[in-house]
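[Protein data]
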Amino acid sequence: MVSLRCKIFVKTELDNLGIQYESVNLGEVNLKDNISDQSIELLSKALRNVGLEIMEDKNAILVEKIKKIVIEMVHYSEEPLIKCFSIYLEEQLHQDYQSLSELFSKTKGITIEQFVILNKIEKVKELIMYDELNLTEISYKMNYSSVAHLSNQFKKVTGLTPSFFKKLQRKDRLGLESL
């Protein structure tokens, strides 16, 4: 569950099934009580119909937590991005970054750093489309050392310069689910 739309869908399904929950966050649901196998199956079926699933594998859950932390930090935090994601992840998940990194790479086929970069570039696209900030302000907000660094990374990921992307009539963005 990596988007607000997914979060809303999960809440709706839990409500429809009468499953009591304490909270629904990106990638995580905290239930008030244990639920029956039948309720789990009904919820699982509803989630599968829209491409979501209930996760029970501890490694898969940990990878989803890493994704959730990165997505929340890059896309939803009002705070400036932190410079050292590795230390932040260690603090949030209480695990060694090296083991987190190995698990993530083995599971997702990309490194955590690459995942962070993909998310940052999607956020940069969004900020360019809003046209409220110039590239200098965007590079500062996204914690790039310079506009040149932002432009180089943007071009490596998209094949376009930020300026060319801004001029496009149709600006393609990836959904967070597909990162």
In short: The first strand starts at residue 21 and ends at 25. The radius of gyration is 18 Å.
